[in-house]
Each structure stands twice: as structure tokens, then as C-alpha cells.
Sequence to fold (337 residues):
Amino acid sequence: MTRIVVVGCGRWGPLHVRTFNSLPGARVVAAVDTDRERLGRIRQLYPWTRCGTDLARTLGSVKADAAVIATPSSTHFDLVRWSLGRGLHVLCEKPLCLRAAQALELGALARRKRRILMTGHVFLFNPGIVKLKELVDSGELGDIHYLSFTRTNLGPIRGDVNVAYDLASHDVSIANWLLGAEPLKASATGGVYLQEGIHDVFFATLTYPDRKLVHIQGSWLNPKKVRQLTVVGGKKMVSWDDLELNTPLAVYDRGAHVTPEYSSYGEFLRVSMWDADVRLPKVATVEPLKVQNEHFLQAVRAGRLGRCDAGFSAGVVRVLEAINESMAKEGAPVRPA
Ligand SMILES: NC(=O)c1ccc[n+]([C@@H]2O[C@H](COP(=O)([O-])OP(=O)(O)OC[C@H]3O[C@@H](n4cnc5c(N)ncnc54)[C@H](O)[C@@H]3O)[C@@H](O)[C@H]2O)c1
Fold:
């Protein structure tokens, strides 16, 4: 039995409590939040759970094997470091921390302590994105030319990090995973409308090796909830819409070729386009958070993590830092360091 303490019981933490309690071989034994009112809701639903406002004190009275960190992003580094130091396995919400160097430090600590450290990059367990990864890796789409993401909604509006740290962490994790690479440079502009110094909207362009481009539009100040991605390959194109529950993916046998033609009048270019069938692949309807948390439990049991380790998470944070630096320089290209 893996005994879990969930730290942070705001919007997202209670979903971890529910999910882990529904998985065989796991039990949420404790919940921690600095806000007593939020703890009250956990106590009401799960009366056997030890609730406390301080992690160290709560763990003084209950034994746990793993901590789930679901507090605001700016608090992740200290809480993860403390938990690993205490000998706990850790599943931390995205982004793992705010600096890539911190992510690497946490990774090294996890290795020293022989503990699992995983980041909750939940879209890497989203069945639509997993299917898309299969399509990309199979070569059916041809060479990938570019990806284009849109992720907007009205809220939730954060006070500790800007919208790029909050939302681009999802898209960058998907892009790095699908392309199996990290970008060589980032260029981004953003807008600050609600809170001084905190961007509410951003438009980022990332350049990956082999001239692959990724564009991300993200905003928490937008009337419409949109979670979409378009993948354009040399052979086929795919659209993904996370809000289309049954058929999130559409594979378009559609594209264009340009070939030089030679005639007595010299060379000219011939553009040929094709527009064949659209296929809606079957995608399982499973809850991504449940699949992610199962992956964590299996890693704890096996002592080995498949996806979302500290190295991968550091790669995501490196790009977030570059996006932020570029926004501060009004879109100047920045090489992720
Ligand atoms: N994977 C996803 O799709 C997804 C979705 C939403 C949020 N998140 C992530 O989850 C985290 C939490 O987001 P949220 O929307 O639940 O935020 P939230 O503000 O609603 O909740 C955070 C909670 O943490 C508590 N808290 C703050 N500092 C604490 C501390 N030191 N110890 C204990 N409790 C503390 C707060 O009182 C609050 O109840 C963020 O990192 C966010 O990026 C991920």
C-alpha cells in the first residue's frame, strides 16, 4: 500500500485525493493546506484522512510514503526539496519549479535519496495526445513541419506566476514529447492587463531542430475555453481538440507538394495539392489524471519512472524561462540555457 499525503487542497489537489483513493494499492492518509476551510471539505468527504495546516507537523502523526504537491507553482521547489529530504517519493504538479537549475537540483536529490520524482505533465497521459504521439512516431504523418497550439479560457488567474508558466507548461511538455527534442530558440510577446508585472496573454514561437516550428497562443483572459493543437506533417495533418470528448483527433490526408518543372521556357514551380479522406481514430475515454497517477504508483513500486522525470521537467522549465526572458525583451529571440 502506498500511503500518500496531498499538499495543497485548492482547485486541483482534491482531484488527486479522489483519484489516488480510487486506485488499488494507494490511500491518501493525509491532506495539508494552509487554508483550514479547504481542509474542511476534504475532512467531510474523507473522514479517515489526517488533515493539517503544516506538512512537517502533519507527518509527525501519520506515516506516508509519497507526497503529492499541488500548491501554487512558486512554492513547489521548497516543498519538493523538503519532501525528498524526508525520504518521500514525490509527484509534483506542473511546472516542477520556476528555474531549470532548480529542477536539476531536485533531480539530483531524488537520485541520491533513491526516490521517484515525477512532474504532473498530465497531457502526456491524455489518450488523444498519446495516440497523436503514436501517429507521429509511426511516420504516418511524414516529417513534422510545425505544431500550432491554442489554450485559452477565462481564468483561473494566478497571482504567483504569469500565464506562460501556468499554461505553456502544458504545451511545451506536449511539444517536447511529440518531437523528442527541445527548442533551440524562443521568441514571445505578452500582454499585462490585470496585475502589475504578471502577463495574462502570450504568443510564443519556438524553433526546434530541423526547422520544426511550434506556436503557442495562451491566455487566461479570453471568453472561450479552447484546448487545440494542429500538427502539420509532410504526408498528413492532424487536429486535436481536447473538448471533443469522443473524437478529439482528426487525421487529414491532405497536403501540398512543390516540384520544379523544366520546359523550353525555363524552370517554374508546380504546386500540387491533395485533399483526400479525414479519419477520426478511436481514442479511449479514460481520465488522464488517473492514468498519470497510476504511472506514478507503478514507478514507486518498480523504483523506475517512465515519463516526466526531472530531466524532462527541467527541459520544460528551460523553455518557460526563455519565453519569459523573450517577453521581457519584447520578442527578441532567446536561446534556452
Ligand atoms: N495538471 C493540470 O492540468 C493542472 C490544473 C490545475 C492546476 N494545476 C497545478 O496545480 C497547482 C495548484 O493549482 P490550483 O489551481 O489547485 O491552485 P489553488 O490556488 O486553487 O490551490 C492551491 C492551494 O495550496 C494551498 N497552499 C499554498 N501554500 C501552501 C503550503 N505551503 N502548504 C500547504 N498548502 C499550501 C493554498 O491554500 C490553496 O488551497 C499549481 O501548480 C497548478 O499549476 C495543474
